[in-house]
Amino acid sequence: QVQLVESGGGLVQAGGSLRLSCAASGSIFRFNVMGWYRRAPGKARELVADMHTSGRTNYADSVKGRFTISRDNAKNTVYLQINSLEPEDTAVYYCNAGTFLGVVGAYWGQGTQVTVSS
Q1: What does the radius of gyration of the chain's CA atoms come to, in whole angstroms?
Q2: Is residue 49 within 8 Å of 67, Cβ to Cβ?
Q3: Which of 60, 116, 63 has the alpha carbon at shortest distance from 92?
Q4: What is the pLDDT of residues 71-100, one digit of tens each?
Q5: Do the Cβ atoms of 6 and 111 come closer than 8 Å?
């Protein structure tokens, strides 16, 4: 059974930063792609960023230059560094594990809330 546990969310002022973490039970090496999605109130879920074991990354246009995804295979953890936060970034952020960049994987975490105040 795969478990993904997110942490690092919170309330932050616009312009601030957060680092989200996603810790997996077991090796994340088995997942070619680890990623982050978000769901804002009243909006559909969207891909924020994902990363292949090869190092290739994929970012939503709205976060390019502000968000950085990274993975530490030794710690079985994926990170999302979020800088220059905007109120529009307010959402529940979910960790996801799968096979292909840009394609939703089968495994999800429970989510962590990020709230950005203006």
Answers
A1: 13
A2: yes
A3: 116
A4: 998 888 999 999 999 999 999 999 999 999
A5: yes
